[in-house]
Specification:
The chain has 200 residues and is of the alpha/beta class. The chain has a single domain, classed as Vaccinia Virus protein VP39 (Rossmann fold), CATH 3.40.50. The protein is built from 6 helices and 7 strands. Strand 1, helix 3 and strand 2 form a beta-alpha-beta unit. Bound molecules: S-adenosylmethionine (SAM). The site of S-adenosylmethionine has 22 residues, from helix 3 and strand 2.
Length: 200
Amino acid sequence: MTRRGQPDALYRRAKTEGYAARSVFKLKEMDRRYGLLRPGQRVLDLGCHPGSWLQYAAQRVGRGGLVVGVDLQPPTVSLPPWVRFVQADVLGLTPEGLRAYAPAYDLVLSDVAPRTTGVGHQDAAASLALSEAAVDLALALLVPGGSLVAKVYYGPGVDELILRVKGAFKLGKGHKPEASRSASREIYILGRGLKPRPGD
Ligand SMILES: C[S@@+](CC[C@H](N)C(=O)[O-])C[C@H]1O[C@@H](n2cnc3c(N)ncnc32)[C@H](O)[C@@H]1O
């Protein structure tokens, strides 16, 4: 929806194509650009409600893959059997808990967004905490060569988080998808090709 509550073109297109949200076009663009998703992958999707990223990731990984979605609220769409949903707070997740679904993951996605208060610095701090949790989980759970996409509202601490991702992955950067509204402070932190850790 637009800021004034009117459906925009991407919102209408998402509905026509059967996706739960217009956010799907951001993931599609990043997948096209950075080659994130492949058949057979194990994908963790943090902040997955209402489910458009789950729908797209499930199509791309196919029945030989696995998509584990986490959110405070369940998806609103029906999903194939290779998608699992975990109702939980991202800030309370542990790598051990997520290894119950797969021993390791090929891709960690995070579109998790805090409930906004309208107070810019508070919203940015809440978003940063969620993105840091996503990066921590990705660094613990990804296979060497694995990738990460994590939304964050731009603010203090984000450049440092991007630097951390740059150090851990062969490619690390911030990206603003075309489908992201220009008025929004959101960017996506991308890490592609996790470098081997000591002991890998
Ligand atoms: C922008 S929506 C995600 C849209 C989703 N990628 C899609 O394509 O359908 C952000 C989600 O983050 C979730 N969220 C916010 N804080 C959370 C938290 N602490 N733990 C888990 N989920 C959270 C919200 O419930 C919301 O569903």
